[in-house]
């Protein structure tokens, strides 16, 4: 998603180019992009000018939107099935933790990540 936000300019980006730039196998990227297409976060096109692009502008996506598609619910605890002893302190902590995590990932946009990448000049090597 970051690569598409940084490099597509609204054009479709070929899968092989994404694979090369991110050093990921084409098969692995196909699995990832399939989920993103199914969730309407990314559009795909076949043919000579085909590839993938964002379905909307990068500032309209939050990191939370993307993570939930790829990872599912971000809750750190599974629902209690009544087979464990609960404590009010522990339950309160995990609910607060979940609230903070969700608020954070929902406060960062894909555009912000792409902008940070452009700010990074690179590593400085000295011999």
Which features characterize this protein?
single chain; 127 residues; extended
| DSSP strand tally | 2
Task: Estimate the helix proportion, in percent.
Answer: 40-55%
* Gyration radius, in Å: 19 Å
Oligomerization status of the protein chains: single chain
Dominant shape = extended
Helix/sheet category: mainly alpha
Amino- and carboxy-terminal Cα gap: 35 Å
Extract low-pLDDT stretches: none
Largest sheet: 2 strands, antiparallel
- Biggest sheet, strands in spatial order? 1-2
Q: Give the SSE string.
A: HHHEEHHH
Helix count, DSSP H or I runs of 4 or more residues: 6
Query: Strand share of the residues?
Result: 5-15%
- Compute the average pLDDT: 87
Short description:
Helix content is 52%, strand content 6%. It contains six helices and two strands.
Characterise this structure.
The protein is mainly α and 127 residues long. It has helices at 2-7, 15-22, 26-38, 63-71, 88-107, 110-119, and strands spanning 42-45, 51-54. The chain has a two-stranded antiparallel sheet. α4 (63-71) packs across α5. The protein is extended.
Secondary structure elements and pairings:
Layout: H1 2-7, H2 15-22, H3 26-38, E1 42-45, E2 51-54, H4 63-71, H5 88-107, H6 110-119
Helix pairs in contact: 4-5
């Amino acid at each position: 998603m970051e690569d598409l936000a940084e490099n597509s300019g609204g054009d479709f980006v070929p899968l092989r180019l994404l694979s090369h730039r991110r050093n990921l196998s084409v098969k692995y990227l196909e699995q990832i992009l399939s989920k993103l297409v199914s969730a309407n976060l990314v559009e795909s096109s076949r043919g000579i000018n085909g590839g993938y692009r964002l379905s909307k502008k990068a500032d309209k996506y939050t990191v939370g939107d993307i993570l939930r598609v790829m990872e599912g619910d971000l809750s750190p605890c599974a629902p209690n099935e009544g087979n464990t002893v609960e404590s009010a302190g522990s339950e309160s902590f995990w609910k607060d933790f979940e609230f903070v995590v969700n608020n954070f990932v929902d406060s960062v946009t894909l555009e912000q990540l792409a902008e940070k990448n452009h700010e990074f000049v690179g590593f400085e090597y000295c011999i």
